[in-house]
């Protein structure tokens, strides 16, 4: 494992990683370990949602997957950006309305889609995080 590829990555990629890693860690703690509805859960939830929003926005400047795409360098992975915004919106609306089912669905969709699906795709060969973790 080496951070060298990440240190030489474009600024958007570095900001993206700097926001998604703590969001993933906080999200894991919120889903698995925290006491739901407690003040700490709420505070960290807002922080997690803010980090995921910044992560989604920075994604719009990450074009390594398909730099010559006819859609301004956007790839199919970028379809997760509006889904992230949708999930963040529904998580907040659900929590404020005490609609726990809506909040839970939105947070799980955000976590599974944003962290597992999109995150998992970053480890394929030829991608920066794949080079960081596997050295290829």
Structure characterization notes:
With 136 residues, the chain is mostly helical. The chain has one domain (4-134). The protein has helices at residues 4-7, 11-32, 39-59, 80-96, 100-121, 128-134.
Query: How many domains make up the 3D coordinates?
Result: 1
Beginning-to-end CA distance, first to last residue: 10 Å
Query: Are there runs of 5+ residues with pLDDT below 50, and where?
Result: none
Cα-atom radius of gyration? 16 Å
**SSE order in H/E notation?**
HHHHHH
**Tally of DSSP helical segments:** 6
- How much of the residues is beta strand, in percent? under 5%
What is the number of strand segments?
A: 0
Give the % helix.
Answer: 55-70%
Largest sheet: none
Structural class of the helix and strand makeup? mainly alpha
Kindly state the mean pLDDT as a whole number? 89
| CA-based shape | globular
Task: Describe the structure using short key phrases.
0% strand; globular
Quick description:
This protein is mostly helical. The protein has helices at residues 4-7, 11-32, 39-59, 80-96, 100-121, 128-134. It has one domain (4-134).
């Amino acid at each position: 494992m080496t951070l060298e590829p990440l240190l030489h990555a474009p600024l958007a990629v570095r900001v993206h990683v700097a926001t998604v890693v703590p969001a993933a860690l906080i999200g894991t703690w919120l889903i698995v370990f925290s006491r739901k509805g407690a003040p700490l859960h709420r505070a960290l939830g807002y922080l997690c949602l803010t980090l995921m929003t910044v992560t989604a926005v920075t994604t719009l400047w990450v074009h390594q997957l398909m730099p010559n795409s006819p859609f301004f360098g956007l790839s199919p992975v970028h379809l997760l950006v509006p889904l992230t915004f949708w999930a963040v919106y529904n998580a907040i609306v659900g929590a404020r309305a005490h609609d726990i089912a809506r909040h839970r669905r939105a947070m799980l969709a955000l976590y599974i889609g944003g962290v597992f699906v999109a995150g998992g795709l970053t480890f394929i060969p030829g991608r920066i995080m794949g080079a960081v973790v596997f050295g290829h």
